Amino acid sequence: MELNDWILALHLLAAFALVGAEVIFSIQIASLWGTESTARVTSFVTLSRVATAMVIAGTLGTIVFGVWLAISIDGYEVWDGWIIAAIVLWAIASELGRRAGDEYASAATRAGELAAAGTESSPEVAAAFGASRGFWLHVATSVVVLVILVIMIWKPGA
């Protein structure tokens, strides 16, 4: 195997980590949809930390190894339209995901505070884990990641 094969493998692993984290967050959101249970929300915190680590590794790995591949592989250039589109969408998805994560992290923190105070259920928690701002930011992030995957697979204009 050549170096570029290893870089491609790492790029793909990073993409799998990123998409896997999106799936984990989607399952968490679906599982907690409309729940008022503060204990149920706090029970997902550890899994959220794992998925967050996957997002960080996936986000950094996809950009670093992707740009590296664009530079090192003959026939591709960083300024190719599909690569620029993927990089711009990567930045958009990163920011949308960060904002969604902030929304859900603050809701989980609040649920933890309420649980520690002995409050078992809260409409505030139910609102945060419903059709909230965090939910729509997560949906937008997922759509942008899907578009990036389509661009990476079919490489329009390449």
What's the gist of this structure?
The protein is mainly α.
Can you walk through the features of this model?
It contains 6 helices and no strands. The chain is mainly α and 158 residues long. Helix 1 packs antiparallel against helix 3, helix 1 packs antiparallel against helix 6 and helix 3 (45-72) packs antiparallel against helix 4 (81-116). The two termini are 25 Å apart.
Structural class: mainly alpha
Biggest sheet features: none
Radius of gyration: 18 Å
For the secondary structure, the number of strands is: 0
C-alpha end-to-end distance? 25 Å
Task: Report the mean per-residue pLDDT as an integer.
Answer: 95
Please count the helical segments: 6
Keywords:
single chain; 158 residues; mainly alpha; 6 helices; 80% helix
Helix-strand layout with pairing:
Elements: H1 3-32, H2 38-42, H3 45-72, H4 81-116, H5 123-128, H6 133-154
